[in-house]
Amino acid sequence: MDNEKLEINRNNLNHRRKRIERIKMFIITFIIIFLLLPTILCLILFSKINSLEKEIKILKVMHDDEYDTYKDSMNSSHKDNIVHAAEKETVNHATQVNDSKEVSNESLDKESKDKDSVDIKKIENNKKVYLTFDDGPSIYTEKILDILNENQIKATFFVIGKTDSYSKAMYQRIVNEGHTLGMHSYSHQYKNIYNSLENFKKDFNQLSDLLYEVTGVRPNLFRFPGGSSNQVSKVDMSQYIRYLNDKNITYFDWNVVNGDATGEKLTSDKLVENVLSGVKNKKVSVVLMHDSPTKLNTVNSLPKLIRELKEQEYNILPIDQDTVSVQHVRAESIK
Ligand SMILES: [Zn+2]
What we know:
Elements: H1 2-63, H2 67-106, H3 110-125, E1 128-134, H4 141-150, E2 156-159, H5 165-176, E3 180-183, H6 190-193, H7 197-215, E4 221-222, H8 237-246, E5 250-251, E6 256-257, H9 268-279, E7 284-290, H10 296-311, E8 315-316
Parallel strand pairs: 1-2, 1-7, 1-8, 2-3, 4-5, 6-7
The structure holds zinc ion.
Domain NodB homology: 127-317
Keywords: Membrane, Transmembrane, Transmembrane helix
GO molecular function, one term: hydrolase activity, acting on carbon-nitrogen (but not peptide) bonds
């Protein structure tokens, strides 16, 4: 009898132990499903967000082009550049004023004397504005060139690679009409050119060859898409800069923007206002604008902008070999 009781007790105990085991298993499964799984999911999502953020960064730069992402760097690093520019300018100043005096001595008639006195005034002011247009040729290149022509001023075009006959004609017009033809990469694809130095070299030479074939001129000026201080490049920008330095290519960034690359569409008047406030108190201003199908307001802003700049006695010039370079990352800092 006692034995039987003992057996029953043992069975009961076994049964309870199994139940406890089952509950344990249930709790562990619960923990795995409701605690571990969300954690893993969180980690996956976190890495996803990271890669998306990078993607957004690239898209943002491509969309806003150069303005938004780099205005901070402009505010800080440009001050140095401008100081640097101003130093060089002071040296140039003396020689240029001397030159202009010679010019005025040689002038014979009153008309040219008047003109010279305006020029001398401008040279003495020594405020230089370089208007630059990125991303062309576009449907508006023709119009931009016409406006520059009507106002008898020269500008600088940092072009991309296009092979249709209209674009080729535009490269040619830029050169023929005395503007400066600079390069802005063939593809303008950040993902491509900033993925490896090899890609960049290939892209660079493709554009250089195209422009040489079409115009007979091999440009020696370059503007990095996104600027030399862009945060998109997977390769350290110093490698690209070293490559350009070795090829004797000068790259130009900018220290004034008209704001045509901001997300919001600014009116022509606002674009003019931005440039005028940007060039104020600068001896050398390199103004970033865009020549692209979405920038009609930039085209429309030009006549007023040029008029205002002339009235304020700025010298509007194309970039050339003697132009003081405006660079976010200075070329000579890369050995
Ligand atoms: Zn661009």
